[in-house]
């Protein structure tokens, strides 16, 4: 087994060929900090070539999956200028690309907030299991921002038509609607049912040969077409322009001050 990195924002538990990865910043509803992005990428790199690790289970501590990007990181990037925003944004896109292509079967267990970056992570999972009360959404435009790195993966997951509606309204929706959209595969009524469904799915995955699964996943992704690195690079530039523009400044300030931005009457 490859050595797993030491992590401050993640809890790692490996047993029976399954690596359980828990996003562990419950005070911020597991908001995706730059450190968490780096640690997730390091974990994926550590297991990439290890076929004894058959599946990755990604979940969140404290009743939430992930509430999106960390506004505090964005505030610190402001002092460093536009390039810092672009790099911050692009690092998350790199995580999504690497999670999408990890040879292991990636399973997400979704509870509470599944917003922004959390929504993106759900979209790159092979199998998604949701609590019926989970709250999904793409809130970026309501903050004067754009879902720069996330959007191509959402379009690939649920199609352009529904993504346009969700991204341009910042609408929130529950697990049942997520299943209707094809974002998640299973919706369960409580924590016990979620755990039982996860056990069932893992039993199915472990019946499949690991190298055959890795190659099949590679084939399926190639067959479907991929969000390109060139597009994600350009999107990071657009994100930087948005977050440093008038709307981005007003939207993030309004969020931190717990008030409506000026474009909301």
From TrEMBL:
Gene3D superfamilies: 2-enoyl-CoA Hydratase, Chain A, domain 1, Lyase 2-enoyl-coa Hydratase, Chain A, domain 2. It holds the Pfam family ECH_1. Belongs to the enoyl-CoA hydratase/isomerase family. This is Isohexenylglutaconyl-CoA hydratase. It comes from Pseudomonas atacamensis.
């Amino acid at each position: 087994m490859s050595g797993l990195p030491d992590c401050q924002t993640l809890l790692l538990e490996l047993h029976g060929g399954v690596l359980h990865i828990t996003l562990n910043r419950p005070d911020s509803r597991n908001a995706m900090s730059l450190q968490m992005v780096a640690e997730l990428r390091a974990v994926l790199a550590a297991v990439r070539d290890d076929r004894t690790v058959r599946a990755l289970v990604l979940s969140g501590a404290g009743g939430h999956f992930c509430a999106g990007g960390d506004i505090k990181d964005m505030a610190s990037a402001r002092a460093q200028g536009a390039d810092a925003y672009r790099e911050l944004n692009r690092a998350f896109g790199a995580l999504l690309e690497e999670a999408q292509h990890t040879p292991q079967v990636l399973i997400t267990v979704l509870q509470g907030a599944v917003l922004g970056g959390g929504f993106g992570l759900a979209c790159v999972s092979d199998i998604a299991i949701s609590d019926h009360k989970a709250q999904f959404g793409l809130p970026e435009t309501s903050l004067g921002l754009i879902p720069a790195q996330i959007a191509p993966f959402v379009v690939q997951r649920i199609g352009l038509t529904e993504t346009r509606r969700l991204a341009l309204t910042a609408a929130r929706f529950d697990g049942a609607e997520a299943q209707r959209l094809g974002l998640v595969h299973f919706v369960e009524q409580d924590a016990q049912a979620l755990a039982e469904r996860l056990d069932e799915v893992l039993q199915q995955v472990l019946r499949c040969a690991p190298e055959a699964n890795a190659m099949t996943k590679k084939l399926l992704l190639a067959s479907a077409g991929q969000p390109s690195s060139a597009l994600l690079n350009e999107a990071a530039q657009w994100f930087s322009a948005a977050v440093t523009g008038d709307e981005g400044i007003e939207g993030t300030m309004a969020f931190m001050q717990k008030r409506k931005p000026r474009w909301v009457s």
